[in-house]
Each structure stands twice: as structure tokens, then as C-alpha cells.
């Protein structure tokens, strides 16, 4: 017998399919929801104040992440970039640092989550005696740079002594043979200047990296930081002095003076004085200052040796008189060039009296004043006696004793110059800044804000929110403020926002670098709409 099956109604078939789908969903294993990675914690913590600089900074995320190539940067408040090598370790990003001293630092980081979503932020921390909020590292206590300063002082002393003594023997004491061993002081001065300027290349690079001079054998630690100007100065000094000595010992006196002059000019042509306006005036004054200082120091050294070894008092008195004439012109040139540079570098009394460079300059002026007083004593009291009594050995001995004191004062002044070239005059006070007014569209409403002082460093941001009817907008939760510097791929920096007792909101915003910043205001309205207002601000 044939059984006939009637087709199931369409509604029944749909019911069966729905039941099967529900059964599959119930039996299927629940897949975890995929969310973007989030930063959970950092070591050190944000805004941490540390006694010692960290060698490793750890960022801990909610899921594995990968650093973006060149996406991690460690910056100081003065814009200096420090070593920051980032590696991923599962959910952690470990950043190895180096060369950090005391101060405030910003770790600008950028990573991608497993799904390729980019995440970025800024971690701020301070080390040791960090400058107060809003201050720059220039205002903080800087480490003493004695190795760099000592090498600069030795370079100047050796260079000026060599060039000046060469000039004395060629132009002033012409016809007088130097004592045996011949040219020993010239060789010593040249060797000192060359060794000091060559050592200044690695020591200066290590100083820039914040590393001790004991790392000088570690070429990899300083080779990339060696400055081209320092290398050029070492090459010019070495080539110029060796050439000058070789020419002098072979009787090529004009060539010797030319080579020595080129070596003497090198500090003025590569030094920091060129950066001050007017540059041509500073360079010219520096050249005259170096030449005059060399003639004075080298002449005193040569005359002291001559007075010690002289056998002909009459001929010696003639050299003394000739040097006295040269010294008068030298002191005039030295004074004029020194005053010129001082007026350019220190245009206010506060710059001269309160900066380290100004204090070193005042100390140098004291030493020069002492040397000038002794020079005046020689010129107006002792030199006339020596001229009248050419055979007076007692007068020559008294003259030599005063010359030694004068030479010591000049040598100390040269050492002060070595200190000064590694100090910077006080920067001129910036003109008073006006707070920056900000207005931006916030959905149908607006945000009005004031950024004060609108300079690189710590700023205060006061702002108020308004709806489309220009009435105060009351968000569901406190607004969020972010700042980024697109040109340098820096940020975003998140500000801590709180209610302003005067009305509206108040935030403290750290903007460590100059440039065109973008400030974002994120607001969640009562309608659950997320409004974002973006404003461009130029920070100088």
C-alpha cells in the first residue's frame, strides 16, 4: 500500500530551521571578542619622579603588540633626542635607554595591535633634580664639564704660546739664537695644542652623550656623535702647527708665520662666536683677539727665556724695548676686540652678572687687568731704566721677575678662555607672550579655550563647552584633551582635566617642543554622541 506524505507547511519548515540554527549557536564554542589593544601600565609610571635614570622602560598592554619602526622616541624638554631601542615581548614593549641625566623626559611611543590597529601615547617622567614645571633643562643644574673645559684650556694655551713665541723669535728677537735644547718650548706647546684638540673629538662626543671620558676606548660609543667642526679644528691645528714648525726649523720664516696664523685662526672660524649677530664682526674680533693674545703670551715667554740666558745686556735691552712697543699695540687690539665681543654677547647687565659665561668673563678681565698693571709697571718704570743702563743686570733681573708674574696672569686668562668657550651667554629673555585664544566647532556647538602662555613647556588650558544654542554643555563624563605635533610625529599627549572653580574646565598641558600643535577636545554628550573638536596652535 502506498503511503502518501503531505508536504510540511512552510511555517513548520521555518520553525525547524530556526531550531537547528539555535542549537548550532548554543553548541558552538564561544569565540572571544576582538578588541583593540590598550595600555594597562608602565614602568616607570607616568609622571613618576625617579632618583636614578632608568635603563629600561616597560609598556604593558592588554594583548601582544609590535612597535612601529622608528615609532619610539625619547625626548628631553630641550628637544634633545636620546637612545631608545624598543623590542616587543608578548604583551610588553621594552625600551632600552641610555645617556639620561637629570631632567624631565617624554617617551613618545607608537605600536600596532595584533589586528594592525595603531596605538600611540606619551609617557612623562623626571630624573633627579628635575627643573620645576614649565622650566627648561637650560634652567636646571648642568653637570660640570671639566674634562672638555680642561682640553679647551690646554688647546688655547699651547696654540697661543706656539704662535706667539714663533712671532717673537722671527719679528722681535731677530738675530738672537734660542738656548739649547733649541725649540724645546715650541715643540712642547705644539704637542700640547695638538694632543688637546685631538682628544677633544672623542671627549666632546662622550660629553654630548652624557658618558664619562673613561669610555674613550669604546669607539662605538662616541664615533657617531663626533662633531664635524671639532674634527676640522683638530685637523687644522695639527696640520698648521706641524707645518709651521717644519718651515721655521728650515729657515722658511714667512711660510712658518703663515701656517701658524692659519692654525691660530681655526678656533674663530669654527667656534660658537660665529652664531652671534653680526657674525662678521664677531669673527673679526675673535681673530684679532686670538692674534693679540698670542703675541702677548708668546712674547712674554720668549722674553723671560731671553732674560734668563742673555749674555749681552745691551742687545737684550734692545729686544726689551722692541717688545715694549709691540706690547702697547697688542694690548690696544686685545682690549678693543674683547670689548666688542663682550658687548655683542652680553647686552644687559643681568646677562653679564648672572650667567656662568659672564662670571667667567669677569674673572678673565680681572686676570687681564692684573697683567696689564704689571705690563704698565714694566713699560713705564723698568724698561726706561734698562734702556738708560744697558749693562744693568740687576734691572734686567727685576724686569724678568715682573715678567714672570705677568706671564702667569696671562696664562690664567687663557685658561679662563678655555672655560668660556664651553659656556653659553645667557639667552635673552623672550618677549612677554599673550595667551592663545582657541575656538573650534564641537558638533553642533563650540568649545572656547585659552592656552597660557602658549610656549614650549607647561601650559594651562582653560576651556568651556557650549551647545547649539550657545548654552553651557554638560557632558556625561569629563572631557578628554589630547595634543599632538604632526610635523614630528609626536604624541598624543593627554592632559589631566578637572573642573575650573571659575567655571568650565582646567587642564595642565605639557608641550615639550616648538611647532604647530593640534589640540583635540573629546566630549561625550548626554545624547551618547561623541563630539571631537580640533584646534591648531602654534607654540614657540
UniProtKB/TrEMBL annotation:
Domain (Copper resistance protein D): give its ranges: 318-419
Keywords (A to Z) from UniProt: Cell membrane, Copper, Membrane, Metal-binding, Signal, Transmembrane, Transmembrane helix
How does the UniProt record describe the way this protein sits in the membrane? Multi-pass membrane protein
Give a GO cellular-component term: plasma membrane
Question: Signal peptide position in this chain?
Answer: 1-37
Ranges that cross the membrane: 153-173, 185-205, 225-248, 255-275, 287-307, 319-345, 357-381, 402-423
User: This chain belongs to which protein, by name?
Assistant: Copper transport protein
Source species: Glycomyces harbinensis
